[in-house]
Write a structure and sequence with these properties.
The complex is a heterotrimer of chains A (250), B (206) and C (228). Helix content of chain B is 29%, strand content 24%. By secondary structure, chain B is α/β, with parallel strands linked by helices. Helices cover 86% and strands 0% of the residues of chain C. Classes of the chains: A mainly alpha (250), B alpha/beta (206), C mainly alpha (228).
């Protein structure tokens, strides 16, 4: 009970602002360290693939980016829904902050997918299930950002965005299934808990490290963006006024 | 303990528009047979308060209690009429939508009360502003007897006869045990009952 | 007290209004015809190519015609105050919203979707589809256009009163229509190439049921957000 109470006190914007500010540098450090380790192992330590040669190494960016893009959409929809259901301002702000980062990861996944595709399949782009779903996911992100941007009233924009994000989240499995039905060219899932791993141990390690690095990066960037949104929305309040004064004095 | 006869009561009501708080801590109570006149300068939240009480929006704070047995009839600033429908068709639509009487005789009688009998089959497009307002008001004749009326600028664009017809209708409604909450930037000339005033200018904003 | 017949009242009024503005109601069909005719002009008149692309072309044009015609569903009603009255009708605010959403979806389908299903065979012939394919075309559009109307409703309610609402609506809703597009055009292609389209049709049918149950809820919520 005490834990939940403590958790909810951080739901107040000024407390979140302070806590996030303290954590952000650590997230950046973690992202850099984990990313460097992951890339080093992936690009230099992992063995050359029998069929694809060295070109496959882009997978260490492509797969984690694709995962992040999908997970962040669900996280965004979750926080947006919380903000709508409980009238929690901070939750809505976090949802808005998540969108551009999620879209960026989607774009990264598409671009790295193309880089992987060229040496592997001979073309820069193939309309296979995974890449096409990523493209549609990008549209979903862009749609969310366009909608919340187009509505001037912040509260209405947050609520409409939450509804759209939830509708999108419900549709993502349907869209994914339908696109898979439509085309099954893409290499089957390379990491799976139950199936026999097709990848060497080092490859898995590199993938894991990159995923963690992306998570740390996402936390850092989203916290930074949320802080900016918090200050912008709360600019009329006392605590922001004091913050500005304190910064001015420095 | 809630009073069974309470028609409408609002407690500590707050209303937000965009980033601003229009008002806070507003209390009001309405009894059967009362007519309340909502007054205030432009932008003070008269329309917003009516919409809150009608159930179109949720208050930022506070509670609204009402007798669920009594129908709420809301008349907004806009007339809710379609240009391409005839006067009777429009009235029938609005009446049917709320479960009121839609018999041709009842519709005709309502239009008659507001002097629109001759324009029964005319498209709304051909009516003047004042006539359209009368069509919108005619719906009130079909409302259940003890209902709560929430009217936003009902006297808007009405001529002398229209005002008289509406005054009569409001008085009759109050006499039968119904209640009215309305806004009007013009002075009310109701014969009876004397309206109670709620002055929004006196309600705090922050 | 019995709840008032919100669904039939709104549906009846919308159909009556569409009948009074027949030209406006036929515009989406005209758009469909023009858009479909552009493809042979752009791709070349070779019959085999046209036959192959026709399921996709017909479906995409139907999708766009539906999306373009859906933007006006709520805008005029909000402007003249009718929407407020409709949402105040009936027992609870939410049930009124659902009834209105369903009525609008059905009226949109009757005015835009059903005519599309009826004139589609004409275009099937233009693209040299076989008789069985044309039957599949009509069946898939008959199941698919209601889905488009229902999803379009959600978009129209979400973008009510928003700047550039119509273009924004297309960006928001078209991704959600992709499963219907895939199953619908896939069914026609399957029949054209001789294989069974049963899987496609069952999926399309399931999508129709799921959308019919869930989309009105989303629309009602969006209307509530817009009206506040």
């Amino acid at each position: 009970m005490a834990m939940t109470m403590r958790f909810f006190t951080y739901a107040s914007p000024p407390r979140f602002y302070a806590l996030a500010g303290a954590l952000i540098p650590w997230f950046w450090i973690a992202a850099l360290v984990l990313g460097a380790a992951g890339l080093w192992i992936g690009f230099f330590q992992a063995p050359t693939d029998a069929t694809q040669g060295d070109a496959y190494r882009i997978i260490f960016i492509h797969v984690p980016a694709a995962w992040m893009s999908m997970v962040l959409y669900l996280v965004m929809a979750f926080w947006a829904a919380i903000g709508w259901a409980f009238n929690a301002r901070l939750a809505s702000m976090v949802a808005r902050a998540l969108a551009p980062t999620g879209a960026m990861f989607t774009f990264c996944a598409l671009w790295s997918g193309a880089l992987w595709g060229k040496p592997t399949w001979g073309t820069w782009w193939v309309w296979d299930a995974r890449l096409t779903s990523e493209l549609i996911l990008l549209f979903l992100y862009l749609g969310y950002m366009a909608l919340v941007n187009a509505i001037d009233d912040t509260r209405r924009a947050d609520q409409a965005g939450a509804l759209l994000a939830v509708v999108g989240a419900v549709n993502v499995p349907i869209i994914y299934f339908s696109v898979k039905w439509w085309n099954t060219l893409h290499q089957g899932a390379t990491i799976s808990a139950t199936a026999a791993p097709k990848m060497a141990h080092t490859m898995l390690t590199a993938m894991l490290l990159m995923t963690l690095a992306f998570w740390a990066y996402a936390f850092a960037v989203v916290f930074m963006r949320t802080r900016a949104i918090v200050v912008e929305r709360e600019q009329q309040t006392e605590w922001v006024g004091e913050l500005v004064r304190a910064q001015g004095a420095q | 303990m809630t009073d069974a006869a309470v028609l409408l009561a609002a407690n500590d009501l707050a209303c937000r528009r965009g980033e601003r708080m229009l008002f806070r801590g507003l209390n009001l109570g309405l009894e059967p047979g009362q007519i309340m006149w909502l007054r205030g300068a432009n932008g003070r939240g008269k329309t917003s308060l009516l919409r809150l009480l009608a159930g179109l929006a949720s208050p930022a704070a506070g509670r609204i209690e009402r007798d669920p047995q009594r129908e709420r009839v809301y008349l907004g600033h806009a007339n809710a009429l379609k240009d391409d429908l005839t006067v009777t068709e429009s009235l029938r639509f609005l009446s049917r939508l709320h479960g009121f009487d839609t018999a041709p005789a009842a519709l005709a009688a309502a239009l008659q009360r507001f002097g629109l009998a001759s324009r029964r089959d005319a498209p709304v497009r051909t009516l003047s502003q004042g006539q359209r307002r009368r069509v919108a008001l005619a719906r009130l004749c079909l409302a259940p007897p003890r209902s709560l009326w929430l009217l936003d600028e009902p006297f808007d664009a009405l001529d002398v006869e229209g005002v008289a017809a509406l005054n009569l209708l409001l008085s009759e409604h109050a006499a039968r045990g119904g209640s009215v909450l309305l806004t009007s930037h013009l002075l009310l000339t109701l014969p009876s009952p004397t309206p109670i005033t709620l002055q929004l200018d006196e309600v705090a904003t922050a | 007290m019995t709840p008032p017949p919100v669904f039939s009242t709104v549906l009846g009024r919308d159909l009556r209004l569409a009948a009074r503005r027949r030209v406006d109601a036929l515009l989406p069909l005209a758009f469909f015809a023009v858009a479909v005719s552009l493809f042979p002009l752009g791709v070349g008149p070779e019959p085999n190519t046209l036959r192959q692309i026709s399921p996709g072309v017909l479906w995409v044009c139907a999708l766009l015609a539906a999306m373009l015609s859906v933007t006006q569903l709520y805008a005029t009603d909000q402007a003249d105050g009718s929407l407020e009255q409709m949402l105040l009708a009936g027992g609870s605010a939410f049930s009124a919203g659902i009834a209105v959403a369903l009525a609008k979806a059905v009226s949109h389908w009757l005015v835009t979707g059903l005519p599309l299903v009826l004139i589609a065979p004409l275009f099937g012939v233009m693209f040299d589809l076989s008789g069985r394919s044309i039957a599949a075309l009509c069946a898939s559009l008959a199941l698919g256009t209601p889905i488009l109307s229902l999803l379009g409703n959600v978009g129209a309610a979400l973008t009510l009163g928003v700047r550039n609402g119509s273009v924004l609506l297309i960006l928001l809703i078209v991704p959600l229509c992709i499963p219907a597009l895939i199953f619908g055009s896939g069914a026609i292609s399957a029949v054209e190439s001789g294989s069974s389209a049963r899987g496609h049709f069952s999926l399309l049918g399931a999508l129709f049921i799921a959308t019919g149950l869930l989309a009105p809820l989303a629309t009602a919520a969006a209307l509530r957000i817009a009206i506040e």
